[in-house]
Amino acid sequence: MRGFNTIKVALRALRRNTMRSILTALGIIIGVAAVIAMVSIGNGAKADVEAKVASLGENVITVFPGSFSSAGMRSGWGSASTLTVDDADAIKREVANVIGVTAEMRDRAQVLANGLNWNTQIMGESPDYPSIRSWPISDGTMFTDQDVRSVGKVAVIGKTVADQLFPDGNVIGQTIRIRNIPFKIVGMLAAKGFNLFGQDQDDTVVIPYTSHMKRIARRPNINSILVQAASAETIDKVQQDITDLLTQRRKGREPDFTVRNQVEFAEMATATSKTMTMLLGAIASVSLVVGGIGIMNIMLVSVTERTREIGIRLAVGAHGQDVLLQFLIEAVILSSLGGVIGILLGVGGSELVSMKTGWPILVSSSSVIVAVAFSAAVGMFFGYYPARKAAQLDPIEALRYE
After folding, report:
1. How far is CA 276 from its chain centroid?
2. What does the alpha-carbon distance between residue 256 and residue 64 come to, in Å, rounded to a whole number?
3. Do 273 and 45 touch, CB atoms closer than 8 A?
4. Which residue pairs from 45-50 have beta carbons closer than 8 angstroms and sit at least 24 positions apart in sequence?
5. Which residues have a Cβ under 8 Å from the Cβ of 377 and sit 6 or more positions away?
6. What residues contact 52, with CB distance under 8 A and at least 6 apart?
7. Measuring CA to CA, how many Å separate 274 from each of 44, 370, 400?
8. pLDDT tens digits, residue range 345-374?
9. d(Cα 215, Cα 170) in Å, to the nearest integer?
10. Is residue 204 classed exposed, middle or buried when 0-12, 13-18 and 19+ CB atoms within 10 A define those classes?
């Protein structure tokens, strides 16, 4: 009952100086709003990057060409490819928990069809490619293993290429020419948009990797190998098994490959956004500290103004603990109310920024809870000294105060 009465007295005191209370809480409101907005924008950027990494496929492991030495000359990562189709076949044949493998070739070339031409990326892949990349065929079918074995002149094209070369929408069964070699279109990939690096994923033509090697690039080595693990739990084991297998196939030669999994790509891609989120949150948190200092300042003024009131309360039997609790409650109410209003403004502000700029946002419940808890903690921390000062007043001296 005593605690309830103390809260009533605290609320009455705040109502007496409504404008001052609002201005006092303003620092907390701005601080919390800034924290919520900045963290939401940062989390949105991080989630967007993660979504783009996920669009590359599920549980994907990529084998890149690595550094190599030849005739005394040493070169770094990606300077030349020494990966072969045999390496990809060995992975598919000997590594457990692998459900998809594709030897990968990449080149750019001018593609002609329907009296039009378009410069695009030519990808040499296996029939496992759509499954590995989680990329469905929207029309037609994927080419088959038989097409790979027979070095077939068949192709699956992306939405951008289809729009540029076949504006009438009639794609399946048409012929495109890549470096003057005709390829029959058997399928079209579903639209996927831009990837993590800002490249249009739909601007591509996919053909059997054997056709790419023998008809387009005319080189014996492949650019990379994509491998799909059976599950997220097995991805680390599969990655290690691939490394061990390829090392064994080199028979003691210096490793000329690099194996990376999707989790590592995601961590590298989101590292910057994580840092920016923390930095923005830390900068915005300074506003909360400034708001807390404002609360302490106003509470000290309030103690001075209400010295006689405190003296009367102490003289009629109130304990110092009651006075301490009253001023602490006032400080916590100010900061908590400011925190709630700040959350509403922060969420609304971040939504407004998203509408105006198109930036993705993600308001997490944890950031809201932390903001409320932190604002209440700020009120208690900065309100304790004024409350303690009020509780330690001598009743006689307080009654004499003018």
Report:
1. 11
2. 9
3. yes
4. 45/273, 45/276, 45/277, 45/359, 45/360, 46/270, 46/273, 46/274, 46/277, 46/362, 47/360, 47/362, 48/360, 49/196, 49/266, 49/269, 49/270, 49/273, 50/266, 50/269, 50/270
5. none
6. 194, 195, 196, 269
7. 11, 18, 58
8. 888 888 888 888 777 777 777 777 777 777
9. 26
10. buried
Tally of residues, the chain: 402
The first and second tokens of residue 176, run together, are 């495109």
**Residue 71 in this model has a pLDDT that exceeds 50:** no
Gap between the Cα atoms of 169 and 284, Å rounded? 51
Mean pLDDT of 206-213: 95
The pLDDT score that the predictor gives to residue 145 is 94
Between CA 199 and CA 202 the distance in angstroms is 9
Q: Which residue has the higher pLDDT, 272 or 117?
A: 117
pLDDT tens sequence across 301-346:
777 666 666 677 667 666 767 777 777 777 777 788 888 888 888 8
> Which pair of tokens denotes residue 160?
């951008």
**Closest-CA residue to 53 (of 223, 267, 230, 240):** 267
Mean residue pLDDT across the chain? 81
Tokens of 64: 């890149």
